[in-house]
Structures are given as C-alpha cells and as structure tokens.
Amino acid sequence: MLLAAMSNPAEHVIEKSGGAQVVADWCKIDVSNVHRWTYPKDRGGSDGVIPARHQPVIIAKAREAGKDVGPSDFFDRAALGENQEIEGGPRQDAPPAEFQEAS
Question: By the 8 A CB rule, do 71 and 86 touch?
C-alpha cells in the first residue's frame, strides 16, 4: 500500500505506524519529540529524518502491530528516484552479479 505523498519520511512513517502518540509510546519518548522529526531544521526539527536509534524499534513494533513499515520507509523516495528500490529486489543501478559479494 502506498500512501499519498508525504512531505518527508518521518510523516510517512508516523502515518503508517498509526500516529505520533503510537510511535512515541513505542520509542518511550514524548510525543513532541516525534512531531519534531517532521519539522524543518530551522524550526528545531530534523527535516523528516527519524533518528537511527529509533528506527529498529519502530520497525519491530510496527510489525508486531501488523503495520507495513520497513527500512525503505525511512528514506525520501523522491530523492532516490522513482525506479530505485531499497529492499525487495535489485536496484536498476546495482552492479552486475559477478561484482557483488557472495553471502
């Protein structure tokens, strides 16, 4: 499911997760901190960037709650380009298989 275009990744993740209070409860922080992630830096925010320390918590709690939140939701899709994927298959600009590390 793709939500309507959000102005930044934090708004996107918060919406998909069920709201700012839900995310604040998961992260054990005040809801004002969650809202601040959506603000521009000149207003004391983080320009839509969710701090890395909270990302795994949000992903895990969202999955427990049956919400579809994954690593790619934390990136600005417009900045990446429409045809690039972060998870779920090779990107169009991925190196040829012979140059990729074996797992």
Answer: yes
* All structural domains of the chain with their residue ranges: 1-75
Specify whether the CB–CB gap between 35 and 49 falls below 8 A.
Answer: no
Class of 1-75 per CATH? mainly alpha
Q: Which two tokens stand for residue 85?
A: 């994927």
Distances (CA, A) of 39 to 35, 43, 74, 90: 7, 6, 15, 32
Q: What is the pTM of this model?
A: 0.70
Per-residue pLDDT reduced to its tens digit, 48-80: 999 999 999 999 999 999 999 999 999 887 666
- At 5, which amino acid appears? A
